[in-house]
TrEMBL record:
<dbReference type="InterPro" id="IPR014721">
    <property type="entry name" value="Ribsml_uS5_D2-typ_fold_subgr"/>
</dbReference>
<keyword id="KW-0808">Transferase</keyword>
<feature type="domain" description="GHMP kinase N-terminal">
    <location>
        <begin position="75"/>
        <end position="165"/>
    </location>
</feature>
<keyword id="KW-0418">Kinase</keyword>
<dbReference type="Pfam" id="PF08544">
    <property type="entry name" value="GHMP_kinases_C"/>
</dbReference>
<comment type="pathway">
    <text>Amino-acid biosynthesis; L-threonine biosynthesis; L-threonine from L-aspartate: step 4/5.</text>
</comment>
<dbReference type="InterPro" id="IPR000870">
    <property type="entry name" value="Homoserine_kinase"/>
</dbReference>
<comment type="function">
    <text>Catalyzes the ATP-dependent phosphorylation of L-homoserine to L-homoserine phosphate.</text>
</comment>
<feature type="binding site">
    <location>
        <begin position="106"/>
        <end position="116"/>
    </location>
    <ligand>
        <name>ATP</name>
    </ligand>
</feature>
<keyword id="KW-0067">ATP-binding</keyword>
<dbReference type="InterPro" id="IPR006203">
    <property type="entry name" value="GHMP_knse_ATP-bd_CS"/>
</dbReference>
<dbReference type="InterPro" id="IPR036554">
    <property type="entry name" value="GHMP_kinase_C_sf"/>
</dbReference>
<dbReference type="InterPro" id="IPR020568">
    <property type="entry name" value="Ribosomal_Su5_D2-typ_SF"/>
</dbReference>
<dbReference type="InterPro" id="IPR013750">
    <property type="entry name" value="GHMP_kinase_C_dom"/>
</dbReference>
<dbReference type="InterPro" id="IPR006204">
    <property type="entry name" value="GHMP_kinase_N_dom"/>
</dbReference>
<dbReference type="GO" id="GO:0004413">
    <property type="term" value="F:homoserine kinase activity"/>
</dbReference>
<keyword id="KW-0963">Cytoplasm</keyword>
Length: 332
């Protein structure tokens, strides 16, 4: 491409929205994740707008812009762009990029906040550059950037955020994710208490090794969960959600988690767990009226009410999102 054509690209725009996700879903540590959509259809995720420009530029906007690093080289959305570009064989043929990250999730939330920025950024860039990367190559880039933030490679936020649905990580590189049947009868009540828990910190409390009995329980619960979903037994699947790997070590890091979990289970919740690395709590029910009751309870009892918090807590009723960033089209 000559210089004239390069200039002609200036002004071309693309955008992407990446939904929040809940990693692990308790029963599949680092292996299972669900994309989330609020039932009131309000956004719960990040949007990235990109545009070919004369010079590189990055802007943060949105409700949680204040929690993003101001130095663009520290911002995962921009770090993703640098990586995206570094692996393009014809990078020199394209102009600079102006990026706006509309940050709608708090950081260190357990809702895949970093994944949302990475997925929205790479999806928007792939559109802007006219799809140089396949889904699988893009997913690998997403994992690489996410690993830089959390200290370990795990796809359980980036995969559902990009593909949507309930995604199980496969051991086969050629087909890295399995889209499980969508548990469409479940309402996910997700409560972010208003304080952050960095994923790195929440991973450091986990033991390096697990007992044989724990490994067997984990295999039993996860395999039964998947089998029930394929049998269409969504309630049984939800009741099979149990975390024997991380929750026993993380629960004490999250003020109010144990008491809220006990209360919600007594009220009939199908499952209650830590969303991702926490501190967000999720509770499942197939009854919308119950979901509203859990929401009220969590607003009163799980959300931190202190003044001067950098983040405000929130509770939303969600479902598993069918569409991820890949299939959500935004008008620029
Ligand atoms: N655009 C961004 N969005 C989120 N975090 C970012 C971003 N840019 C840089 N960071 C940094 O990356 C780190 C992300 O931390 P962490 O992985 O704990 O957050 P999280 O993605 O919200 O957690 P979780 O995956 O449990 O939901 C923080 O140190 C944060 O400052
Ligand atoms: N699987 C990751 C998710 C982080 O959101 C963890 O639990 O550490």
């Amino acid at each position: 491409m000559n210089a004239v054509n390069k200039n002609e690209l200036i002004g071309r725009k693309a955008s992407a929205y990446a939904p929040a996700s809940t990693g692990n879903v308790s029963v599949g540590f680092d292996l299972l994740g669900a994309a989330l959509v609020r039932i009131d259809q309000q956004p719960l995720g990040d949007t990235v707008h990109v545009e070919f420009s004369q010079q590189d530029e990055m802007i943060n906007s949105g409700e949680f812009a204040h929690v993003c690093p101001t130095d663009k080289m520290q911002n995962l959305a921009w770090i993703a762009y640098v990586l995206f570009r570094s692996k393009l064989s014809n990078s020199d043929e394209y102009p600079a990029v102006k990026m706006e990250l509309v940050k709608s999730l708090p950081v260190g939330s357990g809702l895949g906040s970093s994944a949302c920025s990475v997925v929205a950024s790479l999806t928007a860039l792939n559109r802007l550059f006219e799809l140089p990367y396949t889904d699988q190559a893009l997913l690998t880039l997403m994992g690489e950037v996410e690993a830089g933030a959390s200290g370990d490679l795990h796809y359980d936020n980036v995969a559902p955020s990009y593909f949507g649905g309930l995604q199980l990580m496969s051991p086969h590189e050629s087909a890295p994710v399995i889209n499980l049947p969508n548990p469409d009868s479940w309402y996910w009540v997700v409560a972010f208490p208003g304080f952050s828990l960095p994923t790195k910190e929440a991973r450091e409390v986990l033991p390096k090794q697990v007992d044989k009995s724990v490994a067997i329980y984990n295999a039993q619960y996860l395999s039964a969960f998947v089998a029930y979903l394929y049998q269409g037994e969504q309630t049984l699947a939800a009741k099979t959600i149990k975390d024997v790997i991380a929750e026993p070590y993380r629960a004490d890091l999250i003020a109010g988690f144990k008491s809220s979990k006990q209360h919600l289970l007594e009220q009939g919740a199908l499952a209650v767990g830590i969303s991702g690395a926490g501190p967000t709590l999720f509770a499942l029910t197939s009854d919308l009226a119950q979901a509203e009751k859990y929401k009220n309870y969590l607003e009163q009892n799980y959300i931190q009410q202190e003044e001067n918090q950098a983040n405000k807590g929130f509770v939303h009723i969600c479902q598993c999102a069918i569409q991820g960033a890949k299939d959500i089209e935004l008008s620029n």
